[in-house]
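### Sample
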Amino acid sequence: STIVCRRGHRVKSNLLCGTCKEEPVVLPLDPGPIIPVPEILQSVVLIGLWDPAARQIRSVGSGFVVDKKFGLIATAGHVIFNMEEGSRHYGTPYLGIEGAKVVIGVMPDKEKKNAVWRYFAQILADDVRNNVDACILRITSRMESDVDEESPGCDTPELELDASGIKEQNLNKLKLETHFELEQAVRIIGYSQGDGKEEPGSRRRIIRSPDFERGYVVRLFSANLSDDSSSSSDSESKNTFSPREEIVIRCRTIVGHSGGPCVNDDGAVVGILSRADPTDPHRCFLVPGTQLKQLLRRAKGLCSRPVYSTPRDDVPARYKSM
């Protein structure tokens, strides 16, 4: 309470009587500076699936560098795997395309507006069959020269990259963050591909300029699974995607952003874009950072094994080009 003297001065009674200590004034925490998108772009990559027979890119998505030491890239599973509902080929890597290669496009420097195709990569770890729409790729080689859209194709000569070669690439990684809050502001960054429609018989034009959308977290969805193993088995038999956990974002979904990082104000990745809400184009679902960390841990454990830029008999069959 407050006491007012005859001269109008106001004094807190607890200071006069000494009955209790004055409670400190708690000031709101300074959220700190927001990391601008241009400072993040060199960590965000363009991902394509190159079909050597057709000499064109069949599937396009986005991703980000999740580990620079081993040259690891995180992206959405459906960019590289067949995840068509009900298909008997559900879960097939490289979309079942014979001799297919994953190509990685990067922003060459901060001054450039478009990404260039620079690397080849292979699938290292995934959990598609267990309802996680994510995979980790490993860069295996570099194109002899950067390939832009006007070049004849991505079947260019390539240079193998060992551990020291990966280190020389000076990749910029983004940090994974498993903590987030409702109403937290986020940004989804990727390479928009317009409406995704193609003219029959025309060669697909790849948009190589990155962009982003703002949004905010609205909920964390977790499936109520009493038995993960039985649920996984049922899903495999039906060849359907039934995610165990997703972050729900209020944000417009853009074709081509699949696999792109959803970052907080600090530039840390809370998840990657998985899919749009079929009933609401301004709501989308993310693969959470917790699941990405599990995949990354598994991928790092495999990095002691040799990698090959072309399919080999001793590479696990699941990750060969089909």
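Confidence is low (pLDDT under 50) at residues 227-233, 310-315. This sample (Serine protease) is used throughout the tutorial notebook.
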